[in-house]
Amino acid sequence: MQTRAVFFVSDRTAITAEGLGSSLLTQFDQVAFTRNTLRFIDTPEKARAVAEEIRRAGEETGSRSIVFSTLIDADMRRIVAESGALFFDFVDTFIGRLEAELGQQSSHTIGRTHGLTDKSKYNLRMDAVNFALATDDGLTPRIYEQADVIVVGVSRSGKTPTCLYLALTFGLHAANYPLTPDDLGGALLPAGLNAHRHKLYGLTIDPVRLRGIRNERRPDSQYSSLQQCQYEVRHAEELFHHNGIPFVTTTTMSVEEIAATIVHELGLQWQLL
Questions:
Q1: 106-125 per-position pLDDT tens digit
Q2: Tell me, what's the pLDDT at 203?
Q3: For residues 7-29, b (16+ Cβ closer than 10 Å) or e, as one string?
Q4: What's the pTM value of the predicted model, to 2 decimals?
Q5: Topology alike, domains 2-102 and 119-266
Q6: Torsions phi, psi for 31 (to 5 deg)
Q7: Predicted confidence (pLDDT) at residue 133 exceeds the cutoff of 70
Q8: For the chain, what are the domain ranges?
Q9: Contact, 211 vs 221, CB < 8 A?
């Protein structure tokens, strides 16, 4: 199998470079990628050190390195691009065309994407995270009125990470409610959810996968037995069907996919646009 060194280079967090670059790399499953994330490359000296590291990696693997860059400064981009790597410049690729279309130069300000340039949006995101934590696992149902969505599902079906992702990425107030065995076996929703039926979204999961997840938490227990997992998943899905609650199977989905599905299917408005 071919081996390639990959570098995600940024003058800030590298979140954009990693996200876009990784999405492209997933299409090539016959190559072993060695990933390196280089953050806060914000001086020419750091850029030269990065270029040398990229050159060395290419020599060690026998193939030129691959670089995904979101460096704003043109001089630092040039330094890194001269490393001999296959260089993908996400900034210049898009900024140049936008400048031409809009008829003006961009500010080329470092840190705009993930910085505190818009404090109101940052505060909104933090408020959403605090709400997700305050309502995690069925806590404080009295503030469900403030929720944009209430994620419902059996224990370990992915509710908490989904709510936190909805908060951080979309700025949405996402609560989650765990369906316990006491809530299952009938057609009625738990009492605290009835008034918020229009905000509910269900998560389900393959019982075998659920057993594996639960077994890591409580090995060889009734809670993690396949029989218990099958019982809870079956009755949770019946509850969703009976009450007209939309739901998705999380077995092979990432948190990002689950969250995007919820936003799309419920028609939720992003608060961070």
A1: 766 655 555 555 677 888 98
A2: 98
A3: bbbbbbbbebbbeebeeebeeee
A4: 0.74
A5: yes
A6: -125, 135
A7: yes
A8: 2-102, 119-266
A9: no
> What is the DSSP secondary structure assignment for residue 190, as one 8-state letter?
P
> Tokens 């989904």 label which residue?
162
Helix (H, G, I), strand (E, B) or coil at 149: strand
- Residues in the chain, total: 273
Minimal CA–CA distance to 166: which of 201, 213, 205? 201
Q: 119-266 architecture in CATH?
A: 3-Layer(aba) Sandwich (3.40)
Please report, for the chain, how many H helices and E strands are present, in that order. 9, 8
Place of tokens 């996402």: 174
Phi/psi region, residue 103 (left: phi>0; alpha: psi -120 to 50; beta: rest), is left
CATH architecture of the domain with residue range 2-102 = 3-Layer(aba) Sandwich (3.40)
How far is 239 from 188, CA to CA, in rounded Å? 7
